[in-house]
UniProtKB/TrEMBL annotation:
InterPro entries: Claudin, Claudin11, Claudin_CS, PMP22/EMP/MP20/Claudin. Keywords: Cell junction, Cell membrane, Membrane, Phosphoprotein, Tight junction, Transmembrane, Transmembrane helix. GO terms for molecular function: structural molecule activity. It is a multi-pass membrane protein. Its main location: other. This is Claudin. Pfam families: PMP22_Claudin. It comes from Mandrillus leucophaeus. Gene3D superfamilies: 1.20.140.150. The chain crosses the membrane at residues 83-106, 118-137. GO terms for cellular component: bicellular tight junction; plasma membrane.
Length: 165
């Protein structure tokens, strides 16, 4: 009974995680751009966000997005993040289908228990790979946005020093 519950909980958790990867891939809130604090930018309508598929700006209460359609113009990190997230999303489908066939309430003919065990191992490896690709893409995006913020702060400091003279 406990093993069955653990397998069902594992399947549901994996399924929810895979749906989360798909939703994260499609959102446009990977990097939030703001010159001030977030509440100040919301009041001044200067809050922007960048995603893998579009750059968005919130102005006068409306959310305007410009799709990123020119692949050759995009920076390398955006192309890499797109590829990693699409690979993670695609790897999730066979992993979930394999996990579905391994559940104790599903029988496929007169197969031995070793076959189910091997499918469970393969599904687990695919899900671990999915998680690694997801974390790699998010880390790459976060590191690049951090470098942009540091560059912007350094540029503003240099500019303010020039203005003070």
């Amino acid at each position: 009974m406990v093993a069955t519950c653990l397998q069902v909980v594992g399947f549901v958790t994996s399924f929810v995680g895979w749906i989360g990867v798909i939703v994260t891939t499609s959102t446009n809130d990977w990097v939030v751009t703001c010159g001030y604090t977030i509440p100040t930018c919301r009041k001044l309508d200067e809050l922007g966000s960048k995603g893998l598929w579009a750059d968005c700006v919130m102005a006068t209460g409306l959310y305007h997005c410009k799709p990123l359609v020119d692949i050759l113009i995009l920076p390398g990190y955006v192309q890499a993040c797109r590829a990693l997230m699409i690979a993670a999303s695609v790897l999730g489908l066979p992993a979930i289908l394999l996990l579905l066939t391994v559940l104790p309430c599903i029988r496929m003919g007169h197969e031995p228990g070793v076959a189910k065990y091997r499918r469970a191992q393969l599904a687990g490896v695919l899900l671990i790979l999915l998680g690694c690709l997801f974390l790699w893409a998010r880390t790459e995006s976060s590191l690049h946005s951090q470098h942009l913020v540091q560059f912007k702060q350094k540029y503003l400091e240099e500019f303010s020093c020039l203005q003070g003279d």
